[in-house]
Amino acid sequence: MRRFAIALVSAAAVMALSRTATSDDGKNDPLANIKSLAGNWDVSVLYWLSPDAKPGEAKGTETCAMAAGGTVLRQDSKYTIGAVAVEQMMVMGYNTATKMYFANSYSSSTPGFLTVEGTFDDKGETLTLVGSEKDPTGGADQKFRVVIEFSGADAYKASVFLEVDGKDFKAAEYSYTRRK
Asked: How many CB atoms lie within 10 A of CB 160?
């Protein structure tokens, strides 16, 4: 269950990041696309607790709004996984010093917080972010990767991959639709 919680938290932490935008002056303005994601989203989730497990399903909602003077996007999410309600808050943005997108996630399902960072592909259509979480029992860190694919202003999909025994397995797939 711990690995499942990691997958959900890490994926949700980055779901609202978007393609690199072009500003009116023709320069890349990554915050422009992040700002465009302000609003309300419905989320459908498929998740796998292990590589050989059948997928479970969950539903959720997200509300995104700019914060800190428009420098970051705050994302508040609620999911129901079986009988368990999960709430989380994320803060995400773009670090101009490192040229990396980042997200910090805080969740009712795990103590502490997770941080991920990454970049877009050359076409600006797929964002890949990576992170890891310390194992509180002293075991090996859990590495994960989140791949976000955009299909327009009102929908996108994100897949979470956990590294288990040196191999990636798909732990969750999120499908987002903007509420009108």
From this structure: 29
Burial of 111 (0-12, 13-18, 19+ CB in 10 A): exposed
Domain of 108, CATH number, reads 2.40.128.20
48 contacts 168 by C-beta, under 8 angstroms: no
Interatomic CA distance for residues 63 and 5, integer angstroms: 20
Domain total of the chain = 1
Which token pair is 177?
A: 């639709």
Q: Are 141 and 135 in contact (CB under 8 A)?
A: yes
- pLDDT means per 10 residues, the chain with 180 residues, are 47 40 50 80 93 93 94 92 90 91 88 86 83 79 87 87 89 93
What residues does 47 pair with on adjacent strands? 56, 172
pTM: 0.79
Structural domain span for residue 128: 2-178
Q: Which residues contact 100 (CB under 8 A, 6 or more apart)?
A: 94, 117, 118, 119
Strand partners, 69: none
